[in-house]
Amino acid sequence: MKKILLVCTLLCTILIYGQEKSGAKQFWENLQKQCGKSFEGEVTEGAANDTFRDKKLVMHVRNCDKKTIRIPFFVGDDKSRTWVLTYKKDRIQLKHDHRHEDGSEDKVTQYGGKTTNSGSSTLQFFPADQETRELIPNAAANVWWITLDETSFTYNLRRIGSDRLFTVKFDLTKTVATPSAPWGWKD
Question: How far apart are CA 98 and CA 72, in angstroms?
């Protein structure tokens, strides 16, 4: 009798409150917990001559609302990059917003991709979309992914069919001073 009651209670809870949150929703909510914080990172995978390796790398989860999270990514004094994540219909889209110092858009900007499924609470994959294929033909085989847990955030890029791999890992256990606005933004 107790088992039947437990099953009925569980079924009623699911009907009333809906099923467990999807991987995309959990990932989104966990990333939003970092809003307003800045973290230092390091390149853990990438070419030996990668220009990022000798520079201070900082991500700032600067702007969060219900459906958009903007994360400027600073490479030394270069404030041209912002990762823009958008949540819609249980999918997450990643776009790369590149700006010049005067705030104008770079000619190579707004490339990225959208998840093809809900992913997991700790991992989201973004295969290159059509806009990316048209803007940067060589990037048609790009896949980006982000991992997220209590201690780290990683941004990753792999060009399928090549040796190209880039990973930068940020330590979420230590915040750093919040940088000034990225290019094209106002404080």
Answer: 10
Let me know how long the chain is: 187
- AA letter at 33: K
In words, the CATH class of domain 21-175 is: mainly beta
Beta bridge partner(s), residue 168: 43, 155
**Nearest CA to 156 among 44, 61, 55?**
44
Q: What are phi and psi of 137, to 5 degrees?
A: -50, -40
Integer CA distances (angstroms), 130 to 23, 127, 139, in order: 25, 10, 10
What is this structure's pTM? 0.87
> Could you state, in order of their start, the residue ranges of all structural domains in the chain?
21-175
| Both structure tokens of 100 | 């010049």
Reference 180, options 68, 51, 69, 78; nearest CA is 78
Alpha-carbon distance 172 to 108, whole Å? 30
Task: Characterize the bridge pairing of strands 111-114 and 123-127.
Answer: unpaired
pLDDT digits (tens, 9 = 90+) for 34-56: 999 999 999 998 866 677 878 99
d(CA 38, CA 48): 26
